[in-house]
Amino acid sequence: MECEMPFKQSHSQNSDGVAASEHRVYQKDPLPEPGEIKHFEDRKVGLGKKVTLLRGISIIIGTIIGAGIFISPKGILKHSGSIGMSLVVWIACGLLSLFGALSYAELGTCIKKSGGHYTYILEAFGPQMAFIRLWADLIAIRPAAMAVISLAFGQYILEPLFMPCDIPPMAVKLATAIGITSVMYLNSMSVTWTARIQIILTFSKLLAISIIIVPGMYQLFKGETRNFENAFELSNMKLSGMPLAFYSGMYAYAGWFYLNFVTEEVDNPERTMPLAICISMAIVTSCYVLTNVAYYTVMTAEELLASEAVAVTFAEKMMGNFSIAVPFFVALSCYGSMNGGLFALSRMFFVASREGQLPEVLSMIHVRRHTPLAAVLILYPMTILQVFVGDIYSLLNFMSFLRWLFIGVVVLGLIYLRYTKPDLPRPFKVPLFIPVVFCLTCFFMVFLSLYSDPVNTGIGFAISLTGIPAYYIFIYFNHRPKWLQRALDSFNRTLQIILVVVPAE
User: Fold this and answer.
1) Which element (helix H / strand E) includes 365?
2) Taking burial as the number of CB atoms within 10 A of a residue's CB, which of 97, 264, 377, 420 is the most buried?
3) Chain-centre distance of CA 8, in angstroms?
4) Under a CB-based contact definition with an 8 Å cutoff, are residues 277 and 104 in contact?
5) Are residues 142 and 378 in contact, defined by beta-carbon separation less than 8 angstroms?
6) Backbone φ and ψ of 262, nearest 5°
7) Which residues contact 147 (CB under 8 A, 6 or more apart)?
């Protein structure tokens, strides 16, 4: 949402307070008549263009590098069957993620609206398909994604305090709940500080990765290559396990699409978005592959599979007592993913509300802090529920299936728009084979998952399909009963007063 937004004076109960606290020049102005629009000359109630190239890169890298590199190596090795194949999966996932990211860069520069997946499905396939995506996001995908990364934060932040004992599960969940609450608070308070802290967290996680890579490369150059002998032993490999190996890998790379959720806040999106995406993907892929090579210089496949926290086990073998610092860095890395993810996702709910598919209060802005307060807080109850009920690996597979199904649909939408809207301005355009290959890969993985993990896949489909009746009940039929409409209006008005938010126009 651009800065040049009038403040809606129909909510006149807030206008005097805002004028007094934020703009002293307006202190003696008379209150406007109801319905009159009064423009603030220097600051408007709205979301500004505060995402520069560096902040864009920090959102992408900061969201991608979370717990994935510290949790997923185990899943990839287990399902791929050998060290060599696991490295091939890491490289392939990096290449596929780059293809997907380039496709999203084209979509972001020709459809200049925030909202990411939701907005692109809306533009390509209409409101019903977009709502089904939004519904799955709201009740399953996003709370699960936030819960997975938050549980990793809770695990690693407590690791130094409990070494070498096991951490009580309830302690992990309480630490996780505190982490989620603090991220929600930060995003509610300030867009600028959220972005600044994201940059700091991104540098800290790159430092954590380098603490693993540098000693690992030193070992490799010293000749520690015994774990790479017979690296492509294929006796343990099963075709049915490969999609799950790819799910684990693609989960580790997940986050390349988050800049598209805040397109309206990106400064000069035609240049910034493709550049930020390409730089970020090059850095992340290099970091991931080198980190895995570093792991295998000091750990056998069996040791890696037996480890509860791969990065910590590596540090204990290489650095002795200094290994106590590694869980802290990993926790910071997870916190960065939570922060960047929430910053981006709140904009999707903001846009969906603006399109009339979620309650109106979600598209309102806090009068002083200029943050989409209600849109930030919407995920909080569902995420906390997922944290206290659920297994991290089941969540990972269930969530990945739904996520890649819909991302495949988005990129299919890009191909569809090439033919239905050929005259749409495209400042950045990728060769057609890139979205085609990525789209086919997504659907192939989803198809194979029906064979590999039918229970989670079935649950995912069932949740998606509940969006169809929900669409007709809440959206399609405009003639709601008067009592229901009054209740919704009362709900919006009450939340608006409690949260001190107003519409941005």
Assistant:
1) strand 364-366
2) 97
3) 31
4) yes
5) no
6) -120, 30
7) 176, 383, 386, 387, 390, 395
Return phi, psi of residue 81, to 5°.
Answer: 95, -15
**Contact 296/227 with Cβ under 8 angstroms?**
yes
Task: Report d(CA 200, CA 209) in Å as an integer.
Answer: 15
What are the phi and psi torsion angles at 499 (to 5°)?
-90, -10
CA-closest candidate to residue 14, choices 351, 364, 343: 364
Residue type, 24: R
Residues 6+ apart with CB under 8 A from 409: 121, 125, 129, 133
Torsion angle of the four alpha carbons 378, 384, 387, 390, in this order, in degrees rounded to the nearest 10: -80
pTM across the whole model? 0.81
Name the strand (E) or helix (H) holding 384: helix 380-388
Nearest to 100 by CA among 445, 496, 505: 445
CA angle 296, 299, 305 (to 5 degrees): 100
Q: How far apart are CA 399 and CA 410, in angstroms?
A: 17
Selection from 250, 277, 267 nearest residue 430 by Cα? 277
| Cβ within 8 Å of residue 86, ≥6 positions away | 73, 76, 77, 80, 245, 292
pLDDT in tens, 107-135: 999 888 888 889 999 999 989 899 998 98
Distance (Å, rounded) from C-alpha 16 to C-alpha 27?
8
Q: Could you tell me the CA-to-CA distances from 312 to 188, 292, 338, 340, 474 in Å, in that order?
A: 33, 14, 21, 24, 48
User: What are the tokens at 228?
Assistant: 């790479």
Q: Is the dihedral of CA 443, 448, 452, 453 positive or negative?
A: positive
Cα separation of 400 and 260, whole Å? 19
d(CA 311, CA 206): 14
Segment 73-85 shows an average pLDDT of 82
Asked if residues 291 and 210 have their Cβ atoms less than 8 Å apart, the reply is: no
Quick: pLDDT tens for 9-59.
Answer: 334 334 333 333 333 333 333 434 444 334 433 456 556 677 788 888 988
Q: Quick one: CA dihedral 100, 103, 105, 110, positive or negative?
A: negative
Please provide the DSSP assignment of 427-492 as one string.
SS---THHHHHHHHHHHHHHHHHHHH-HHHHHHHHHHHHTHHHHHIIIII-----HHHHHHHHHHH
Q: Considering just the CA atoms, what is the radius of gyration of the chain in Å?
A: 24
Provide the token pair at 118: 């939701």
